[in-house]
Amino acid sequence: MRKINVFDTTLRDGEQSAGVNLNFEEKLEIAKQLERLGVDVMEAGFPASSQGDFRSVQAIANTVKGSSVTGLARSVTKDIDVAWEALKKSAEPRIHVFLATSPIHMTYKLRMTPDEVVRTAVESVKYAKAKFPQVQWSAEDASRSELPFLATIIEAVIDAGATVINLPDTVGYTTPQEIGNMFRYLTENVPNIDRAILSTHNHDDLGMAVANSLAAIQNGAGQVECTMNGIGERAGNASLEEIAVALNIRKDHYQADTGLTLKEIKRSSSLVSKLTGMIVPSNKAVVGANAFAHESGIHQDGVLKNKETYEIFTPELVGVSSNRMVLGKHSGRHAFKEKIVELGFNGTEDQIQTIFKAFKDLADKKKDVTEDDLFALMTEATVGEAVAHYELEALQVNYGTNNIPTATITLNVPSEGTIQEAATGSGSVEAIYNTLERMIDGPVILEDYRIQSINGGRDALAEVFVKIQYDGVESTGRGTAHDVLEASAKAYIHAINRTINRRAYNAERMKQLNA
Ligand code: KIV
Ligand code: ZN
Hints:
Its cofactor is Mn(2+). Residues 4-266 form the Pyruvate carboxyltransferase domain. GO terms for molecular function: 2-isopropylmalate synthase activity; acetyl-CoA C-acetyltransferase activity; manganese ion binding. Residues 391-515 are annotated as: Regulatory domain. Mn(2+) binds at residues 13, 201, 203, 237. By secondary structure, this protein is α/β, with parallel strands linked by helices. It is 42% helix and 21% strand. It has helices at 24-37, 51-63, 77-87, 103-110, 114-129, 147-160, 176-189, 209-218, 240-249, 251-254, 265-276, 297-305, 333-342, 349-365, 371-382, 428-439, 484-514, and strands at residues 2-3, 5-8, 41-45, 68-74, 94-100, 134-140, 164-169, 197-202, 223-226, 256-257, 325-327, 369-370, 391-398, 406-413, 417-424, 444-454, 461-470, 473-481. The strands form five sheets. Strands 2-3-4-5-6-7-8-9 form an eight-stranded parallel β-barrel, surrounded by seven helices. Strands 13-14-15 form a three-stranded antiparallel sheet. Strands 16-17-18 form a three-stranded antiparallel sheet. Helix 1 (24-37) packs parallel to helix 2, helix 2 (51-63) packs across helix 3 and helix 16 packs parallel to helix 17 (484-514). Bound molecules: 3-methyl-2-oxobutanoic acid and zinc ion. Residues 13, 168, 170, 201, 203, 233 line the site of zinc ion (ZN). 3-methyl-2-oxobutanoic acid binds at residues 13, 98, 138, 140, 166, 168, 170, 201, 203.
């Protein structure tokens, strides 16, 4: 059985999804979960792209010890130097350097001849190798590159010190048969190929990213690059969960498996979905809400007689719980703490107290408090904003079919005390947002608003995601509450707090750079 290394790029390529903007705390929380999941390598960001990315790659490299942490760099010395500063304290310093190799990219984007591309790639790998023990080199747009040219450049970068060679289908253009041929050709035509691990990285523009990844594995790839829930540029990257479960369930066919702790998949998926605001479609393989739902009578009958008639793997394999009621309104703090630790919580006593209070409030309103509810409360408490400039203290909405909706809001502003305001709108949510806009000195443009329930049922928790533009900056926010209007207000306030914190961080950095 071959072991396939999992290279997770949720925090780099995944974060390049339109509308996704994770902050420092959110990235760190996802990194810790990916470590729990057991990914071999995690790409934490692109350190030279921004100060924010540098800071989070550095923090992840210094925190995560169970997975190798890497960062992306263009083939220029400045990027490699910055990546070294961010990654030098990681358990196994590793860099990911890339350069395009397809005729269209070399001619129009790089404006370089093939010989110049080979020279640049070799120089960058040598430069990186002088610092990093592990150097991954990627041939961007490999699937549209000429095979003999790929063989030449790969041989040269392996001689220069590359230990992993990644062959991306950057634009999601290739097919399983073509990618299989590419990997087989390179395995057979690069003389020193045994000195490096071949890696596959696929985008989903034609819906074939997972199939292409599996075909590459069958033809020699020893590493697969993917993201949780398949998030990423345009149509996204290959889904980690689909590849991992396909290899595990069809070991007989692929003769390969990953070393992942599969029962951490559901939690990883939920965390990434919550923090990115990218809702997982119900019919998504492995992690969608309907992935184990049997609707037709014939199927239900079959499953009752023998699960295997219609279920090729159990929900438990990927950590989907039966979502039974886990705690009730009479549960004490001790039982509560035990339960959240079992769910992977490792925060401070203060945070436990905050979540316990939120749990008690919820248990008063909701009959069954499930694991998913607790997970939502935990995420809200642990990955909140470092500084809350505005906090919702009270919200009242007057709505009637024949009245103009009016919202009255009290906010706690640590620098000013409490402030109160009221405004109307054509609907209740608009009234709330018009009121908040006055209070925070708008204008604010609401670009997106989405709502979903946790688990369903009339007493379910509501989860709201918003995308706003405030102060010329695009930002996202999320809010969870028992009431949809309160969740809506919280999501908006969260997005505002995130914008202010980001602005403050950038201003502080500018001051440091100018000093
Ligand atoms: O898709 C791609 O080509 C990439 C590279 C930077 C590896 O993400
Ligand atoms: Zn990519």
